[in-house]
Amino acid sequence: MAIASVNPATGETIRTFEALNDAAIDAALARSVSALRVNRARGFDERASRMIRAAEVLEERQKELGRLITIEMGKPIKAAVAEVVKCASNCRYYAEHAQSYLADEHVTTDAKETFIRYEPMGTILAVMPWNFPFWQVFRFAAPALMAGNVAVLKHASNVPQCALAIEEVFRDAGFADFEFQTLLITSEQVERVIADERVRAVTLTGSEPAGASVASIAAKHIKKAVLELGGSDPFIVMPSANLDDAVATAVKARIVNNGQSCIAAKRFIADESIAGEFEKRFVAAMEALKVGDPLDETNDVGPLATPQIADDIEKQVRDSVAAGAQLLTGGKRTGNYYAPTVLARIPPNAPAAREETFGPVASVFRAADVDDAIAKANDSPFGLGASVWTNDRAEMDRFIDGIETGQVFINAMVASDPRVPFGGAKHSGFGRELGVYGIREFVNVKTVWIARS
Ligand code: NAP
C-alpha cells in the first residue's frame, strides 16, 4: 500500500489509506476556490483569532499529536511534543505580525499616491516531507493562511495520520470552510494538481530529485515554486572556541531527529591544532548516547523512519570506508536503528564527503586555517546552513562573508525560528520560509499608481 502508517520502531503497519481518485481531487480543488473567497474576505483580525485558536488546539493536543509523530516516523517523544509546541508558537507569531508584514507600502513618486499592496495568490499546494511532519507544514501554512491564501497538502506517504490530524487542527480552530485540506495522494498525482488552473503556486520541502521534478512541472505551467531541499551543513571548530560547548552542541546538531534533519550538522571541520582533541571528545559523546525505543523519554536516538533510509545510510558508510575513510565509532545497524557513527580521514569523493547523510553519521575533516575551513565548508553541492565556533571577532566576519549558505550561526547550532528567514543557496533550493520573507512568497505584489488629476 503506497500510503501507510508503519511504526519504524516495531515494523507494525498501523493504518493504510487509498489514494484519492481524480474525482475526489477535483472536488477538493473546487472546495478550495470557495474557501479562498471566504478567507480572503476576512480581515487580519478574523484570521488571527483563528490562528491563535490553532495554537491553543496544538497546545491542548500536544501529547497525543507528539505520540502520533513518534509512532509514524520514530523521533524521540520529547522532540515530537516539542515540535507540536513550536508549531503553536509559529501560529501565534504570524497571528501577531501578518498585518504589519503585509501592510500597504507607500512610495514617493510624481503620482498623487503610489503604494504596494500584498494580495493573496490563491490556492497553494504544499508537498512536504515526513521528518518534521508538523513543523514543515505549519511553517508554510500559518503565514500562507494569514496572508489570505488557502492550502492543499500532499504530505509524505509514511505520515498520513499526521497529515489528517493537521487538517483537523485547522478545522477545529475555525478554518472550517476547507481553507486547509489534506489530499492523500501519491507523488505521481502531484503533476495533475500543479497543472490545475485552480492551483497558483507550489512549495516543496524534500529531496533534490523531488524538487527538480516539481519545479520543472511548475515552470511548465508558469507557476511559482519555493524549494527547501537537502543540506550537508558544515560545523566548524576553531582554536578559540569553547571546546566543551562545541562538542556538546556538535552531538546535538548531528543526532537531532535521529540524524534526519536538513539542517543537522553533517560535516565537522576542525582546525588542525585542536582536531585530535575534538575528535576524541566527540567520539566519546556520540558513544554515550542512548539508542532505543523512541517512546521511552530517556532515549536520545530512535530508529530511522523507514528501512530504505537505514539501507541508504548503511551503504554510504560502507562505501566511504571502502574508499578509505576511517570508522572511529558506530557503523552498526539493528533493524531500523543505526548506531551513532563518526568517520574521519574521508577521501574527497567518498559519499560521506559529497552526499547528504540522513542518519546519525558524522564526517570529520581537518582544516589548516580559516581559508581552508571556508573552502572545505563550500566544497559541497548544498548551501543550507553552517555553524561556526570561534571567539575571534575578525574570524567570525571572515566566515560570515565566506560561507555560501542561507544561514550562518556563530557559536550555536543551526535552527529555524519564526522571526528570521529560513532557506538555502545552491542545491539546497530557493525561496524563503519564516520571517517577513516567508509570508511574502505567496502574495501578488501589486503596484498601485494614482495619478494627479
Ligand atoms: P522526498 O522523497 O523528496 O519526499 C518529500 C515529499 O516529496 C514527499 O511528500 C514525497 O511524497 C514527495 N515527492 C517525492 N518525489 C516526488 C516527485 N517526483 N514528484 C512529486 N512529489 C514527490 O524527501 P524525503 O527523503 O522524504 O525527505 C528528506 C529530504 O528532505 C532530505 O533531503 C532533507 O534534507 C530534505 N528537507 C529539507 C528541508 C529544508 O527546509 N530545506 C527540511 C526538511 C527536509 P512520497 O512520500 O509520496 O514519495
Plain-language structure description:
The protein is an alpha/beta fold. The chain folds into two domains: 2-229 and 428-450, Aldehyde Dehydrogenase, Chain A, domain 1 (3-Layer(aba) Sandwich), CATH 3.40.605.10; 233-417, Aldehyde Dehydrogenase, Chain A, domain 2. Helix content is 42%, strand content 22%. The chain contains 15 helices and 22 strands. The protein has helices at residues 22-41, 44-60, 62-73, 77-101, 135-146, 160-172, 190-195, 208-220, 243-255, 272-287, 307-322, 351-354, 370-378, 393-402, 435-439, and strands spanning 3-6, 13-17, 105-106, 113-120, 123-127, 150-154, 180-182, 199-205, 224-228, 233-237, 265-271, 326-329, 333-334, 337-338, 341-344, 361-367, 382-383, 385-389, 407-410, 425-426, 429-430, 443-450. A seven-stranded mixed sheet has the order 12-15-16-11-10-18-19, with helices on both faces. It has a six-stranded mixed sheet with strand order 7-6-5-8-9-21, sandwiched between helices. A three-stranded antiparallel sheet has the order 3-4-22, with no helix packed on it. Helix 2 (44-60) packs antiparallel against helix 4. The longest helix has 25 residues, at 77-101. The chain starts with a strand and ends with a strand. The relative contact order is 0.14. The model has no long low-confidence stretch (mean pLDDT 98). The site of NADP nicotinamide-adenine-dinucleotide phosphate (NAP) has 30 residues, from helix 8.
Whole-Å distance between the termini?
Answer: 66 Å
Q: What is the CATH C level class of the largest domain, in words?
A: Alpha Beta
* Extended strand count: 22
Biggest beta sheet attributes: 7 strands, mixed
Distinct compounds present: NADP nicotinamide-adenine-dinucleotide phosphate
CATH architectural arrangement of the largest domain: 3-Layer(aba) Sandwich
Q: What is the tally of helical segments?
A: 15
Helix- and strand-based class? alpha/beta
CATH topology of the largest domain: Aldehyde Dehydrogenase, Chain A, domain 1
What is the typical, i.e. mean, pLDDT?
A: 98
Instruction: Say which CATH homologous superfamily of the largest domain is assigned.
Output: Aldehyde Dehydrogenase, Chain A, domain 1
Shape estimate: globular
* C-alpha Rg (nearest Å): 23 Å
Tell me the strand percentage band. 15-25%
Number of structural units classed as domains: 2
Oligomerization: single chain
Strand order of the largest sheet: 12-15-16-11-10-18-19
Contiguous low-pLDDT stretches (5 residues minimum) are none
